[in-house]
């Protein structure tokens, strides 16, 4: 993977904005949870990733058992947890005459507690695999692990005790953390139990990603990414309504643009606020659309006014990437995200996201700066014309992208959302997309979200619900407690990282069914 | 190894004694030390355990280097350390977008940082191998490891960072701990630089074992064993003079005898005072001799009077093990220690230790209880007679032990120390021992100490010094910074645990050259 890394860069820190973000830092709600069952992993080729967990006993039996070198057990917390684990351990037999050495492995999915992490050979850091090896010098001991884990299953392996003692576990618990407040979620009268379940799992996914910022995934990257923030914010307005958390995240991004004024794709919050050196064309524009959505949801005029110059600046910078024809310049680096797809060309979808953003920026300019509105409208007209002239292939009936005139699902979906064609033409385009099914497909719930939203935009609620049932419903059938970062129904082992062991199985950008169901009354 | 384990046992807790021990708990002296060099391990068949460390650069160069996945380095602190390690780590490159995963390995000897611990296949717990695997979520970070390590070398392996960043180490340090006070050690005018070095290394060994109790070894078992305590106390009287620490340890043992009144072979101090369920014939008797030595060194009448009943009780219990002939009953369990030696029969040396103890108990009884003195003198006469009648083989000119009439070094040495024969006969016995060199030899500095003391007892100072030079001097030539738990010059890979990786290389019972040199004016 070719990251775009700026070796030397200057950050234009806005301490007022950073201070404002700091003042909006939420208090985490904590709750102590306990495992429900002792389980074992069983290989099953019909199950996603080949492994399932089978209940062996209720967790109450744990206290009666003791374990020696080479023994292991798995506890199942019954649902997804994000928090801090405590184990109460005692020695059985002689006084412990050597340290206890144990390995703890945390899995959101059965495969993570079934397959040794030593088999991992993906290209992103193996340090994301949730595992700790610990020595305990003195027993009995109550250990609270200092790191936060995201998991449902926890495997405990006894690496060694001594010949004179074994160990027993009197209690295992997790103090879960989230900044989301369940009591704020509006009650719904569901028409359909599958959609009800989808809504519930979406909300749980969002809840577990809501920490002191909106994280993309509590397992990985545990980080504030703009692409995730945009969708989390939309889901949040319909559910937890933690609007100050959206505001905080917007101010965090606004606190550390680079010296050109571009907002980073993601931020590191600790030990100090630092923008990542990854800058993505689409994600920077989503700063603007996220501000737009925030204003729509809150009518917070003060924030809009304060962040407007930076929101406008993202559009200016995006326009600077247009070539003389008015088309976004393509390149081979990681300049835009769009979707996890090795072969996907990013040009046409990026062009569409520019148009999508321009439309929303114009509406903000109406409220704030009439002169910019005129300028933006002119630009919009030109960019749309250029798009139709250079990216629309009349013969194929598809938008094309890049040197090879690639036809992808992503390009068509974003062009629909950008409303480059009229409503009827969009409807034809989407139908043709499903009929011809171009080979450059979709790999993430993030991209599927945009497909469903495109279907809703053209008024095809039936097909939208069908997609929800097929895709997110598919995840549920495949065992999801929270929605996953990656899901390709045709290639369930898919991972852009080289191993599904490292995939995140509670991922912010997958939480949108609750938004789609509630916003569009599905 | 067949441990003697009492499944059900009652401890006769003496809270006054425990409270007295607690009040004598020393304050640990702390000092911050830093590594001196970056080193690499090099295989060398001529070096003990096959590995040596070669300096590559001064440690000042460390700060200029950075490390990525798969890299490693070793720092050498220049001498043995016991303490808490701190690492100051920063990221180099992009902001760290994944946790840092590192493994730290601590070695008293080069082999420990050269050979992977995964190769360890000994029978005692692998949990003693000093290694930690740590995830660091946020960088820069200053990490202080919570566990205490005993080491000279520290290896740092970078298990993973990410493709976007590497790590650098701005500082590595160790806060060493000991309760020994160097300023109390009497200055010496050495006649001989080899003995001077031996004295210095002995003192360093003792110092590193002096924590809030006299530990046997700061790497392993980090525990208060009576056999070690006895020798540490002797070395301590000549050097640090932390006599209250000896007193504390005596009161700890006295605080938790079993319901028969037997003192355990070793104690666990944390989380609460618990005697190990290992009871050893020789070690229980050493409670009495250690009290004797303590009184000799301190004239502390109050302690002597308080602990006398328990000291006397150890002798009573030992006498109960005599058979109708007056010989200590042998058994195949781990009932006496004597030395680490698979084939060594423990009967005759145990008989000798009983006699050795009886002689000293009689001297204490003279001070405290005339009636017991008479009784003990009677017993001594009988036991000595029985020994000569049943264990002395006139034809062989050796003491024999067990059913097979085993002739061992240990039996002869302890019989000399027990003064069963007269001075001249002892001299002949020792000479014959060296000449005939029975195959059941010695494996530990603990046993060699008794050989040297036996030589000094018979007045053969020349041979005693020769043994010091050969044995402890041999360790120095083989690279000892502190004296080792195990050393067999004829089998340098020797370990009673199945692997020299787990041997302790700073061990209390090896610290006695300073006692022998200073006490006997060598």
Automatic annotation (TrEMBL), chains A, B:
GO MF annotation list: carbohydrate binding
A family per Pfam: Glyco_hydro_78_N
GO biological process: carbohydrate metabolic process
UniProt domain Galectin: residue ranges: 39-230
PANTHER family associated with the record: ALPHA-L-RHAMNOSIDASE C-TERMINAL DOMAIN-CONTAINING PROTEIN, C, PUTATIVE (AFU_ORTHOLOGUE AFUA_3G02880)-RELATED
The name this protein goes by in its record: Alfa-L-rhamnosidase
